[in-house]
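Model the whole thing, not chain by chain.
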Amino acid sequence: MPELPEVETIARGLARRVTGDVIESVWLGEKTDLLKSPAALIATTLESRRIASVRRMGKHIVFDLESESQGRRAKKTKAADPSKAQWIVHLGMTGRLQVCEPQEEVARHTHAILKLASGKDLRFVDPRRFGRLSVATAADFDAGGVEPLEVELDPFVSLFRGRKTPIKSALLNQKLLRGVGNIYADESLFRSGLRPRRRANSITREQLGKLFVAIKEVLREAIALGGSSISDYVDDDGKEGFFQLQHRVYGREGERCLVCKTPIKRIVIGGRSSHFCPKCQK
DNA sequence: ACTATTTCCTGGATGC
DNA sequence: TGCATCCAGGAAATAG
């Protein structure tokens, strides 16, 4: 369940391992439902490109690519540069990006293998196929929404103006805020004392201010934990690498609230299970 | 323009 | 033990 902090951790680890490497060839598997761009376009866009950087946008991992010959030229103009492109990976639920030796056995549910000039493989493995692969060429990839760690208070508050949807659903809406998933939504709502079913437009500016702080806190703490456990997660099975943030409500249905000892409740909102303390959250 | 619901997919957990 | 069923999750598609 990679959300913003996990994706950030993974992107940083990948950046360490593959920045500067060149993609020599691309193999894509039979299952094309996880390709958001045509397979042939993905392959031709990636091949012979140098990985200039790897970064996170929302829950997406963006590989910035440049043509090999353009490698380390002096400044270029800002206009759309055909030598540039991006490979965009969404891990979905169970997606993993694995950097390994080519002789390593190809795991079940491997959908893409990139052969790198360094001799390593970069593989995309995803049993459940909720992940998505695409490329952007003409323009920069637009992930929609604002980055929760970058947005300022005023634009954050205005995201919810006039929205009758439950605050929980609004937090999960990637077109508003990108990167927050089910776990960190529940944790942020607990920390700010808001019930997940509260209508977004019924929340005062002051309360939204608390939520604003809580989201940033929770994400930063989780990234800090991920960053300290980053070692070799890419080679492992993805879940092992993360120190779990101590969840205060998520997955704790029936257990006692850490603040007031009231049993944590679980309800379903928009098909997502939502955990909260009925006493601490209003 | 917005909101709610359904769909996709597999493996692990649970129930009988 | 075996088999069926349910559930997890993000986002796109569908329906209202």
